[in-house]
């Protein structure tokens, strides 16, 4: 074997066992077959070592992959590898969204705008745990803005619990917590939030919040975007699949809210999902360029068909209705709608802003926008100041009634007590009378008490006297009231 290596290094055969000066008989011979085979083997070995080294390099230095593979025309390998650190390849045609996304591993970006929402978080996370759409396919994005309470720290606590849940179906995908204040001047309480004057500025700020949240968290691998408010009280855990099955670009359920019984039990809540009307279009034409029409206020009578009012509790939940404006409580949209540039206008777009403007803009770009009138979710009931006053009055009335009932009871008890006393009194009287009668009997011959004439004889003497008579007949109920014999 050493002969071979020497042969390779100096170009001629050399054998240490032979005389250095002798002429090798092989010298001018053509190369032997073993030599050729050996050379081929060497090339194969070098290639194998190079390949092995290459693989090791690829494994150790991911950036090397990004450099090497495309230059070798192997770039297609990269598209399936999500762990690359610097270069990522996406074919957005794979993320358009289909009717049965959960079977195809389609990812949903779940967006939740939050503001002073600490109180709603326990309920919200109870919903999160119940979602039937595979949790690992859902990425969460929270925007916490202008909050004075403990929304952010509490949110982190709940998320930590959720992601560390021992049940491996619980944890969600990526989570983004985004903080951004917009300096909202409108206070968050119900009265301020729902007042007419506050609507346009409030909606414009909300629109900005949604756009910030979405643009910061939407990734190319998201096929869907779901917007959900934290204060939804009741919703089917299958809502994502239920909405997705319709395979629409933008789809919303009907949103109602439960009411206390004294207010009628239930009420439409979200009036922002509607169909455009001629009246509203005519109204829009008369308005200033920057005006924003808001629904549900007497100031703008639009006579639009609202999704909320078309609800039939027994209707088919799959019935669809084309709409133009959408409410923001629960929107499922294909990510491509946003990728196409549709957003939540923070200005007057066709005289609308935020989610209603979003619906209009999506329509304008020929996306399908649909509402489900008979598929209902329930928003939390938050009493208004008027409701609170009313409830306070009701509470007072209740207390007064209770107090009155208590007084009544006490009075009755006292009466019964008095009656007992009177009975005792009567017993004494009777004995006294009997004694007197005996005395008289002994004196003379008349019987004073008794006989059928008793009641008449004692008329006007009161109940105790009546009871006395019955007593004599042996018929008195447990309360001491007289029971008529005949
Ligand atoms: C979650 O599911 C459980 C069990 O079905 C149910 O009792 C609970 O009310 C649900 N929670 C919410 C917030 O819907």
Detailed description of the structure:
The protein is elongated, with a radius of gyration of 45 Å. Mean pLDDT is 81; it is low at 1-16 and 446-486. Helix 2 (33-60) packs across helix 3 and helix 4 packs parallel to helix 5. The protein has helices at residues 2-10, 33-60, 62-71, 121-130, 151-163, 190-194, 199-217, 239-244, 278-286, 335-339, 354-364, 385-443, 454-458, 463-473; strands at residues 107-114, 138-144, 175-179, 222-228, 232-234, 250-258, 266-268, 321-322, 330-334, 369-379. It is α/β, with parallel strands linked by helices. The protein folds into three domains: 39-89, no CATH class; 96-382, Spore Coat Polysaccharide Biosynthesis Protein SpsA, Chain A, CATH 3.90.550.10; 388-450 and 459-476. Strands 1, 2, 3, 4, 5, 6, 7, 8, 9 and 10 form a ten-stranded mixed β-sheet that branches. Bound molecules: 2-acetamido-2-deoxy-beta-D-glucopyranose. 2-acetamido-2-deoxy-beta-D-glucopyranose is lined by residues 126-127, 130. Residues 426-447 have a biased composition (Basic and acidic residues). Pfam families: Anp1 (PF03452). Residues 454-467 have a biased composition (Low complexity). Keywords: Golgi apparatus, Membrane, Signal-anchor, Transmembrane, Transmembrane helix. It is a single-pass type II membrane protein.
